[in-house]
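Suppose a colleague, Dr. K., hands you the sequence of a protein chain of 408 amino acids and asks what its three-dimensional shape might be. Before reaching for any lab equipment, you can write down a predicted structure in token form. Begin with the sequence itself:
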Amino acid sequence: MVAWLSSGILLVPAAGHGYINEPPSRTGAIKEAAGTSPYGAALWFNQGCTIGCPECKGVDDASGSCGSDQGTATLPSSFFTYNVGKKDCGINPWCAPGSSPIMNPCGLAGGDVEQGKAGNGGDAPPGYNLGDKGTEMRDGAAGIHRTWVAGDVAEVSWAVIANHGGGYQYRLCPKDSDQTEECFQQTPLEFVGETQQIQYCDLPVEGDHRENAMPPTATPDGFNGSIKILPADWAATLGGCDNKPRDTIPAMRINTGTVPAGSTWTRNPVPGCKSIAGGAFNIGCHVSVIDGKYAVPKATDFQFPPVGVDKNRDPLLLGGFGVGACFGCNQVDNPPDCDKFGKLGRNNCTVDEVNAQSFSFNVLDSIRVPQVPPGDYVVSFRWDCEQTPQIWSQCSDVTIVAPAATSV
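The predicted structure, expressed as tokens, is then:
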């Protein structure tokens, strides 16, 4: 066991939200880490983005509204994840999938070029400055590289840290091209099948002093005086995923009213809490690893019915806000009412609540590898949120090769 695991250093103080981890992300995130957000993996996103606007408004205008330029929602009510039961979806990105502008298809560090208040911007990931572009980031997954075969089916996955509902798409751009949104929109990856999977992972509990968390200043390369921890070393301290079960669940996919036109998007299958903030800032869906501390949430306590039990948190259902509910008041710039509302008049969680809120699973889909020329490519994961005017986006690098010649 490497020395940092028992160092007693606290978990990175930020409420990260979601990230791609298969193929392994440039951030260093891998599927074995599931909902732990190593290296600040979930802090690459875009703030103040709403449908049809010329540009994202950033932290200065968290509503993202753009007046007469505002687009019109196209999403059928059956795909709503936060406006369930309402007639109108609103203007947040998922309400017309893919039609919102984006600051960077691989995300901006912290979601904007300046610090936002909790919920309207984030802290920069370790080793980066606010506003650094994900398209220009160092490759934290070096040494863990995926090779896909053109025409084959490949597996992709992402992890939920703070559940903003909505839905997502994976896209492809040649690595030797400019990494623009326009480039990625040219090749949205085709989902295969009408099901997806929940892949559980065997993660350690945080511990009484959160001693099992990755140090908050860790990076895969030790950049700028940070602690160097390779993704493979981090994975070696975890229990892994391959020995854990997978649940196959129905996938809700849509290809009408989407951008690019006719491209398919998949709804986030994990429902948030049916509360004022969906479970953010420790409000709603109260859970604990201590038996009897809180009542087990019912299906009616969520935005829409969960598909079943979370096998790593049984008897808790497969829903909630995620561990991001526990760190909303741990940012550099907090709202003035932090620790004055939420459960028991506080917004941060006790250690047992952190362990219970964590989603130690990944959301898996199968995609068809497109028939493109062999070479190096970049995969962009784009999660359009419904609860907030935010888009989570990160990138992974893959090599695509031609199918092996078939002997006759």
